[in-house]
User: Fold this.
Amino acid sequence: MAIGKQAKVLTDKQQHLILTHLDNSRYPLRNKIIVLLSFKAGLRAKEIANLTWEMVCDSAGNIGNSLNLTNKACKGQHSGRIIPMHTELKHFLSLYLNEAKEKTYFDLEKNVIGSERNNHVSAQMIVNFFQNLYKTIGFSGCSSHSGRRTFITNAAKIIGQAGGTLNDVKLLAGHSSLNTTQRYIEYNTEAQKRIIEKI
Assistant:
């Protein structure tokens, strides 16, 4: 993926604007979860579409402390992974689970994200969702990959403070190669200047 063609990384302020905008959407809770799965868990469109309740619930049937993505839900044969659950994402998933449990046809094998007429949505539907969302808000250069790039970039920025390394970011992203992870990380020229001054 060429540097100039990568989806743009969004700031915290822009992410907040997106979530506020979704308050007025037809399915605000579901739509916020789609966005948070991208920005706070780094999921691909296919992974969001394939996520089932058993991947986010614990043994008691409540929202757990991690996302347990299976290989089947992911891009590659070995890209299944465990991602610690972000507090905000867990909150909205808990609310959504309570709504889902009120429906007589709920079970843990069903997809978390469903359409009005069908339980399962395609990866392309998730891609289209983000495309329409960014177009409506007026964000150019953004795509369904913007949330994933934002997640990986932010994780790379703070991983050292958390006592981890880029290998931890690689595992969270579900990449087989560290080179792939590094291509997702947006460069910060101001940070580079500060580094040079400290050498």
Notes: The chain has one domain: 8-148. The mean pLDDT is 87.
